[in-house]
Automatic annotation (TrEMBL):
GO terms for biological process: triglyceride biosynthetic process. The chain crosses the membrane at residues 36-61. GO terms for cellular component: plasma membrane. It holds the Pfam family WS_DGAT_C. This is O-acyltransferase WSD1 C-terminal domain-containing protein. Residues 364-505 form the O-acyltransferase WSD1 C-terminal domain. InterPro entries: O-acyltransferase_WSD1-like, O-acyltransferase_WSD1_C. PANTHER family: O-ACYLTRANSFERASE (WSD1-LIKE) FAMILY PROTEIN (PTHR31650), WAX ESTER SYNTHASE_DIACYLGLYCEROL ACYLTRANSFERASE 4-RELATED (PTHR31650:SF1). Keywords: Membrane, Transmembrane, Transmembrane helix. Coiled coil: none annotated. GO terms for molecular function: O-acyltransferase activity. Signal peptide: none annotated. The keyword ATP-binding does not apply.
């Protein structure tokens, strides 16, 4: 613990120094100390694994036996180990991804239902297998695991319908309607798959031309945001089958080397997760109402953000997170809740896919890394520089891959109840979840209607009262925000402060 805290403090002091030339020896010393700590952690971990091996083997046998029984009796398939995390819902956070697409013109219900049936429910690959079988399945809990069970004949009317008949006439009314609907839980009648896409007629405040808002919701256990975005862009869209949500990040050789590095750093990453203290701020509470308020920012020009990131030698993510950090700091100052050197502890979702082909099916490849956003800076530029330093360190050690790898092992080896206890213990120390989704920078159409706007809201986990998303589409970025009413009745103040921070750069 001493070595961890000492190396962490050295890293933090280095992150805050602008002149790296005078810190070469300190940086080398910090790196050597970090690797010494990792070596000691492996010396502890490996004997522990050997001691626990009989119990692990027994757990695997029990899990496999239950899976065989469920398959023979009900034709169920066990949930993938990396999807298991997203089944741990609570009354305050139901683990449902929600979002919206604003389409130009009036979309007719039956036409849209036909598209969903052809492009989602009955869509098959070249081998004749369903691409999205989860659209016709529901989750059933076993004694030690969860299983996907086929519904049989799906009733599309339960999943695609008009949320209201009369057009919504203002953005405020639209946000209120979406918030109310997104807070509802899916019926647990074992006859419906946990997903839906509903239509809302909408008259914008500046035009009397009717538009259509598609509100989509699905259980996070079905897919993560990248897989969902791939479906929306490359399957549901008329002009799909383009590069869409992401480009290839690594070659095969780079991927192997990155996995080796991530495996080496794995004990340190999980030590950091287990040792970080519990959050203490005005947004942290264990008494969530489960009633959410959702909103989205005004469009932000992507080119403007790119110019800022080039000027600061960072990434678009560094700029957006830095602006969010400054906005949260200003919000806490307004609430008189900000002390010196205070951070906001978040779980930042990182996609671990190496190529777009891995997003073609509904899967979860997201890793949640613990990130402390600095809220004590005086300027937006300082917030961006600190955010850049934090994420540079995360990328340097391959922390997302380490987290994903460790969770894959834990969820495979341990019963669901034990994994749930571990997740709740660690996530319960954080306040917010953050996600960044890169959409296509061209306009797509659905049923002949241009998609004008795209926003989404990732779910919080356990006690997290705040969820934030950044979504880029058609050369614009929007921030989506979801808050629990136990801590904040209106997310507009945070949105306004974020937009102000963006203007300042």
């Amino acid at each position: 613990t001493f070595l961890y805290c000492f190396s962490r403090d050295m890293n933090n002091s280095l992150l805050q120094e602008n002149n790296k030339n005078h810190n070469t020896m300190a940086s080398i010393g910090c790196t050597l100390l970090t690797h010494l700590l990792i070596f000691l952690l492996w010396c502890i971990l490996l004997p522990l694994i050997v001691v626990l091996l009989p119990f692990v083997v027994l757990a695997i046998i029990i899990r496999g036996t239950e899976a065989l029984v469920y398959y023979c009796k009900y034709k169920c398939t066990p949930i993938r180990s990396t999807d298991l995390l997203w089944t741990f819902e609570t009354p305050g956070n139901r683990m449902i991804i929600s979002g919206m697409l604003q389409l130009d013109g009036k979309v007719y219900l039956e036409t849209f239902r036909t598209s969903i049936r052809e492009r989602l429910i009955e869509k098959k690959n070249e081998d004749g297998d369903l691409i999205y079988p989860q659209a016709q399945q529901y989750l059933e809990a076993g004694y030690v695991n969860y299983y996907w069970k086929n519904i049989g004949k799906i009733n599309i009317n339960d999943h695609v319908y008009n949320l209201c008949q009369e057009p919504v006439k203002s953005e405020t009314e639209l946000q209120s309607l979406i918030s109310e609907h997104s807070g509802k839980k899916f019926p647990n009648d074992n006859q419906r798959s946990p997903w839906e896409m509903v239509l809302v007629p909408y008259l914008t405040e500046n035009s009397q031309v009717e538009k259509t808002v598609v509100v989509f919701r699905l259980k996070h256990a079905i897919a993560d945001g990248s897989a969902l975005a791939y479906f929306l862009i490359n399957q549901l869209a008329d002009n799909g089958n383009q590069t869409g949500t992401m480009i290839k990040k690594f070659t095969q050789r780079q991927r192997i080397l990155l996995n080796i590095k991530a495996l080496w750093y794995l004990p340190l990453v999980y030590a950091k997760i287990m040792l970080h203290p519990k959050e203490k701020n005005v947004l942290y509470t264990k008494e969530l109402t489960g009633i959410k308020k959702q909103a989205w920012s005004k469009p932000i020009d992507l080119e403007t953000v790119k110019r800022a990131k080039n000027r600061m030698n960072g990434t678009v993510n560094d700029v957006l997170v830095g602006c969010l950090s400054k906005a949260m700091g200003s919000y806490f100052q307004d609430c008189r809740q900000l002390s010196t050197k205070q951070n906001l502890t978040t779980i930042f979702a990182v996609d671990t896919r190496s190529s777009i082909s891995e997003a073609q099916y509904f899967r979860n490849y997201v890793a949640g890394i613990v990130v402390k956003l600095p809220m004590y800076t005086e300027t937006v530029e300082q917030s961006i520089q600190l955010s850049k330093a934090i994420f540079d360190r995360v990328k340097e050690i391959g922390e997302p891959i380490s987290t994903y790898m460790g969770w894959h092992f834990l969820s495979f080896l341990l019963p669901a109840a034990v994994s749930k206890f571990f997740v709740f213990d660690q996530v319960g120390k954080t306040t917010a979840s953050i996600s960044n989704l890169m959409g296509p920078q061209y306009k797509v159409t659905i049923n002949g209607h241009d998609v004008e706007m795209f926003a989404f809201w990732p779910p919080g986990t356990y006690t997290q009262s705040l969820s934030v998303s950044f979504c880029s589409y058609n050369e614009q970025i929007r921030m989506g925000i979801e808050v629990d009413t136990s801590v904040l009745q209106d997310p507009a103040p945070i949105l306004n402060l974020f937009e102000e921070a963006v203007k300042n750069i």
